Amino acid sequence: MEILKFNPIFKPTLWGSETWVVSAVKGSESVVLSGSCRGMTLPQILNEYGSDFVGKKNYERFGNDFPLLIKFIDARQDLSIQVHPDDLLSQRRHGKMGKNEMWYVVDADRGSQLIAGFRQRTEVADYAQKVADGSIENDLNKVNVNPGDCFYIPAGRVHGIGAGMVIAEIQQTSDVTYRIYDYLRRDRNGNLRELHTELALEAINFDDITEDPKVHYTEKRNAVAELVSSPFFTTNELKLDAPFTRQYDEIDSFRVYMCLSGECCFLDSEGHGMFLHAGESAVVPASTKKVTIVPDNEVKLLESFVE
Asked: Rounded to a whole number, what is the distance in angstroms from the first to the last CA of the chain?
């Protein structure tokens, strides 16, 4: 199989926009842009190539369901505070995967903040009233962010993206979100936005008091820097200013590359190439065991896979 590049799907929102760069979500399926698979959707690729595309273990585990959803999020206003159910709760309620996710801050205005977890104990019995009167804001852990900051958001953690930042988001393939608070904002008709207070109660980890939710890592040049390793996905950062060969002999998985800055060319062992610009993503099939990444000056990439 060849390296695949998909069409970005732009989704305007009330607070900014999302760009889904690798998606198998029904109604928002990514489509291959070039090569012999041009015009095929991501689900069609998976159905056609199976384990050659996603890896043997992943195909046994997920079948024809692609396990990751990859996005860029451009937040012009504060997003609502949310929580996602884990696999067990989401399967029981919705017949879908849960949603564990991570954020990598691509860009951020000075003073930008996001929310990750609680900063103090919130009692379950008081939760609904605190949401109703807005005092829940006092319990939330607000964190100043800078470009390059990384956060792992496990299912059950309350979270929210603040205004003035661009986020790369890697998550399980799920569209299940419980909105728990929206700053008491009203629409043009004076109505409060719908909340999922009762649904969220069972999903929230009320013991998640998090002083420092950032992922601490050491940035490396022309090497792999691990950001997140979880049962749901592994994500690495690659900052390259010279050709870099990536061997996958021990990784039985597809690999998604998000280009955060710069440009580069991906070359497989058969000499097939794929050029990638900032804001674009490519998927290397599991059957491809070696690629060489050739940057144009300097490039920063995120690499994600499932083991």
From this structure: 20
CA pair distance 135, 294, nearest whole angstrom = 51
Beta bridge partners of 107: 166
**What is the three-class DSSP state of 70?**
strand
**Per CATH, domain 224-305 is 3.40.50.720:** no
- Looking at residues 292-300, what average pLDDT do you find? 96
Average pLDDT over residues 141-148: 97
Q: Where are the domains of the chain?
A: 4-203, 224-305
Report the alpha-carbon distance of residue 252 to residue 256 in Å, rounded: 13
Task: Give yes or no for a contact between 285 and 254, defined as CB atoms under 8 angstroms apart.
Answer: yes
Q: Over the range 222-234, which residues count as b (16 or more CB within 10 Å of their CB) and which as e? A: eeeeebbeeebbb
Instruction: Match domain 4-203 to its CATH number in 2.60.120.10, 3.40.50.1820, 2.60.40.1120, 3.90.180.10.
Output: 2.60.120.10
- Catalytic entry in 157, 179, 246, 255: 179
Residue 114 binned pLDDT confidence (cut-offs 50, 70, 90): very high
Is 0.90 topped by the overall pTM?
yes
pLDDT for residue 158: 97
The half-sphere exposure of 13 on its side-chain side, counting CA atoms within 13 A, is 18
Clarify whether 255 is annotated catalytic. no
Q: What is the mean pLDDT of residues 65-93?
A: 96
4-203 and 224-305 share one fold: yes
For 228-238, write each residue's pLDDT tens digit.
Answer: 999 999 999 99
